[in-house]
Design brief:
The complex is a heterodimer of chains A (about 160) and B (about 220).
Chain A (H helix, E strand, L loop, with lengths): L2 H41 L4 H15 L1 H14 L10 H15 L1 H20 L4 H15 L1 H15 L2
Helix pairs in contact in A: 1-2, 1-3, 1-4, 1-5, 2-5, 2-6, 3-4, 3-7, 4-7, 5-6
Chain B lengths: L1 H4 L4 E5 L2 E5 L1 H23 L7 H45 L14 H22 L1 H7 L8 H36 L5 H33 L1
Antiparallel strand pairs in B: 1-2
Classes of the chains: A mainly alpha (about 160), B mainly alpha (about 220).
């Protein structure tokens, strides 16, 4: 069979899986953060501005694994298929699978962190700078596994 | 899509070895460093009791950072490491923001810049640990809680460097790929400025802050 066509099939399957699975984690996580922010605003309307800011920053960081999934999906979609080798067919497929599944965990985890940060600020608004700083560092560390997925996916696309 | 992964470079032949220098990355980082040095010298020359505009901005930034560094590293070591941490943040913010200018590309989009800074942070953290705790205590901590945990602890330390540098690289690289592709899809209409605002200014600032904070946290974990 034609290798080029096979590679295209594998890359398109991979792109779909990368973005499809990758959207799960960030979606759940960001929704949870928004929920906690609403709850906090209901309890303490006076810190609504602070809560909105924390929620948006936390969600933006929680979205980063979803953005990595989008990057991998776009790279697979717009890849130059003119001289592919046979070994790249499974590599494209597994690059998508790797980034898609790898994005679930960090997305949920970071969203939970953002949600709990909103809750903590609603309960004790004076600690807001400390909470936001801890939230950012904690989210960054829990994102590590998503970054490993991105590195492996990029290696699979460009180095294999 | 090849232009995304292509990094312009010079190749020097020294004897039998080939040395590759990434030209645009080098020029941009040295340019940013030169701008920072000149700016600091000019600012330091005319410090007044009643501050002007630039002095106020830099004082607010430096005051905020000083508190954070002292909180994390303690009053003895903190002041010594504060200049390095503060300038690292300013340098990274400028590196991430420079991509919004036409014909410029972020030096952090090239993995060598974040990896270099990450390795620098690694050596600073471990050097500080040896200086503060002594070499005996430092080596002993690798064998905590049980002796056969040593390989895992070593791998954990190396993984820190990889995760910190690839986080910055992945975010900036991903942002620029999305800007490129989406701008192309909408024929450069309406959307691109907002994309540059989000991925260039907002994500760039957050990631520079996270990188700096994590470097600081790694140092403070090592000295405790």
């Amino acid at each position: 069979m034609d290798i080029q066509l096979c590679a295209k099939v594998a890359a398109f399957l991979g792109a779909g899986m990368a973005m499809g699975f990758g959207a799960i984690g960030s979606g759940i996580g960001e929704g949870y953060a928004a929920r906690q922010a609403c709850e906090g605003m209901g309890r303490q309307p006076s810190v609504a501005d602070e809560l909105l800011r924390t929620m948006l920053v936390g969600q933006a960081v929680a979205e980063s694994t979803g953005i990595y999934s989008l990057v991998v999906a776009l790279l697979l979609l717009f890849y130059d298929f003119s001289n592919v080798r046979f070994i790249q067919i499974p590599a494209f497929f597994s690059a998508g699978l790797c980034m898609g599944l790898g994005a679930i965990g960090p997305g949920i985890g970071e969203g939970f962190t953002a949600g709990k940060a909103c809750e903590a600020i609603a309960r004790n608004p004076e600690t807001a700078p400390l909470v936001i700083r801890t939230m950012l560092v904690g989210q960054a560390v829990s994102e590590s596994t998503g970054i490993y997925s991105l590195v492996v996916a990029l290696l699979l696309i460009f180095v294999v | 899509m090849e232009d995304l992964t292509y990094v312009p470079h010079w190749v020097l032949n020294v004897g039998n070895y080939k040395i590759t220098l990434n030209s645009v990355t080098l020029l941009t980082t040295w340019g940013i460093m030169a701008v920072l040095v000149v700016f600091s010298l000019m600012l330091a020359k005319r410090i007044r009791t009643v501050p002007g505009g630039w002095q106020t901005i830099s004082e607010v930034l430096i005051d905020g950072f000083y508190g954070m560094v002292i909180d994390a590293l303690g009053p003895e070591i903190g002041p010594k490491y504060f200049p390095m941490i503060c300038i690292m943040f300013i340098f990274l913010v400028l590196c991430n923001w420079i991509g919004i200018l036409p014909y410029m590309s972020e030096p952090t989009k090239d993995i060598n810049t974040p990896l270099g800074l990450g390795i620098m942070g690694f050596f600073i953290a471990h050097g500080t640990a040896i200086k503060v705790k002594g070499i005996k205590q430092y080596v002993k901590e690798y064998f905590q809680p049980i002796f056969f945990m040593m390989p895992l602890n070593v791998v954990g330390e190396i993984a820190k460097v990889i995760s910190i540098s690839f986080r910055l690289f992945g975010n900036i690289m991903g942002g620029s790929i999305i800007i490129l592709v989406v701008s192309h899809l909408v024929y450069q209409l309406i959307l691109p400025p907002f994309l540059y605002g989000f991925f260039g200014l907002f994500v760039g600032t957050v990631q520079a802050f996270v990188f700096t904070m994590l470097t600081m946290v790694y140092i403070s974990v090592q000295i405790r």
